Amino acid sequence: MKRISVIGAGTMGRGIAYTAAVSGFTTILNDISDENLTKARDYIEKTLETSVKKGFISNTTCDEALQNISYLSDFSESVKEADLVIEAVFELMELKIDTFKKLDAACPTHTILATNTSTMSPTEIAAQTSRPDQCVAMHFFNPVHKMKLIEVVRGLDTSDETVEKVLEVGRKMDKECVEVNEFPGFVTSRMNCLIGNEAMNMLMEGVSSAEDIDKAIKLGLNHPMGPLELADLVGLDSRLKNMNYLYETLGEKYRPSPLLTKYVKAGRLGRKSGRGFYTYTE
After folding, report:
1. Is residue 120 pLDDT above 90, yes or no?
2. What confidence tens digit (pLDDT) does each residue in 5-14 have?
3. In 41-161, where do the E strands start and end?
4. Which residues, in sequence order, are CB contacts of 161 under 8 Å at separation 6+?
5. Rounded distance, CA 175 to CA 264, Å?
6. What is stated as this protein's family in its record (predicted)?
7. What is the CATH number of domain 187-271?
8. How far apart are CA 21 and CA 13, in angstroms?
9. Which residue ranges are tagged as binding site?
């Protein structure tokens, strides 16, 4: 497992690509948008520079990471020699299935296909390919270079060999991996969405302010970030899609908070739009 291709240069994709390159993998970051690739390159180079200044990585590691990573908009070219492809496109089942169909056609027969999804079924995605035994979910967490966990989620047909190879990649990235048998929401998203949704309902009901709800969870339950802060970081539109999926698959207790729906309709999407439960400035 030497060559990793990452599909999608958004927040998660660029973080995964950064981590792969720093960990010594030959890495290709692909996106259909040249603008997204330029933004991702700027982010990765700035993060490398900051990591050197703070002593997290050496100058040698930084230089090697810059050599390891390439940025390509050509889909087939990006994956033609990949040992592992990590898909990090938007959380829409139709989009992920379409991406996996294209990957199945474009990748070598040995390539493992991984989806970086926080809630969706790797079994359903893998079933659209000719290699369901080589498909798996790798759920990374944001920001990828700081967060230690990867959820490795088996689909119905995922082979032991595929899981072991993915676990080895995770170890080389200096991550802790947990193995999960597929069920909607896996472990972390199922719990996290429920906590965040209840925080939104409490805010809507006037139980407390956003600041004090987050403060209570951080200081009282020792969470590093409050649930409303975290929702803003993830993106409220992404959170709403996840909640709707969990609501459809697991039932009433995952019904999205009306406040979340209202904020998304208003364009308050969190950090990326400048306003969510909090207001953000440059």
Report:
1. no
2. 999 999 899 9
3. 69-72, 84-87, 112-115, 135-139, 149-154
4. none
5. 33
6. Belongs to the 3-hydroxyacyl-CoA dehydrogenase family.
7. 1.10.1040.10
8. 12
9. 8-13, 31, 91, 96, 118, 142, 272
SS3 labels along 206-225: CCCCHHHHHHHHHHHHCCCC
User: What token pair was written down for 25?
Assistant: 């993998």
Domain boundaries, the chain: 3-181, 187-271
Q: What is the pLDDT of residue 282?
A: 65
| Chain-centroid distance, C-alpha 229 | 17
Whole-prediction pTM: 0.85
CATH topology of domain 3-181: Rossmann fold (3.40.50)
- Tens of pLDDT, residue by residue over 69-80, are 999 999 999 999
pLDDT tens digits for 214-259?
Answer: 999 999 999 989 999 999 998 999 899 989 989 999 999 999 999 9
The position carrying tokens 């982010």 is 43
CA neighbours closer than 13 Å in the CB half-sphere of residue 24: 8
One-letter-per-residue 3-state SS of 7-41: ECCCHHHHHHHHHHHHCCCEEEEECCCHHHHHHHH
Alpha-carbon radius of gyration of the chain: 19
Binding residues for NAD(+): 8-13, 31, 91, 96, 118, 142, 272
